[in-house]
Amino acid sequence: MVSPRVEEFLENLYLRETEGDRCSRVGDEDNGTTQREAENAGYVVTGPDGKAQLTEAGRALGQRVLRRCRLAERLLHDVLLVRKDRTQSNACAFEHVLQDGLDNRICTLLGHPRVCPHGHPIPEGECCKRAGLDPLNEVSALCDGRPNQTGVVAYLSTRDHREIQKLMALGILPGSDIRLIRLFPSYVFELGHTQFTVDRSLAEKIIVHWRDREDDSSS
Q1: How far is the first Cα of the chain from the last one, in angstroms, to the nearest whole number?
Q2: Residue closest to 7 by CA, chosen among 25, 28, 21
Q3: Which of 91, 126, 161 is the last residue of a domain?
Q4: Statement to judge: residues 151 and 50 lie in one domain
Q5: How far apart are CA 167 and CA 100, in angstroms?
Q6: Residue 84 banded pLDDT, cuts 50, 70, 90
Q7: Same structural domain for residues 157 and 56?
């Protein structure tokens, strides 16, 4: 398992290579030890000048770490309402948690953002590529669906952390299969084998990839 120190070192090198930027989270006094650790793991090679150069594996990992960092910034800013000038320092610790597919779930939750709160690009993930090729036909709010129509939750369209928490407590997460049952007087839908009821203010925050009528009739 790669240590957070090596991850940040690779992120730093990737930033300098792609954006001419320098991440200050890895101190110069640690670079010698960290560079040797990264080299032993096959992520960098040391040139004649003593400077580290990313291998293909190191570049891929550096890109993934940067992606997690900037997604963490978006989550902190958009959902948890952390001030923009504080997102980067908090994201430093949070980025190491967004592994094992959690980064893709966060990305989907946020609607596949292209830039961080500071305007820097977020590297594209596999979830972003799949979203562009999604075979499901229509993307709209739960309140705009038809009775008995089925789909997949795409993301939650709200920056209110209380609404996010309430919806997630119901099990409404990106990638969850959902079926709309009734529109009036409240919105009734099914997740798994459980039915839930929400009002319009929440139903319009649940964005769904809807299947077409033929898909519905065959299910």
Answers
A1: 43
A2: 25
A3: 126
A4: no
A5: 23
A6: confident
A7: no
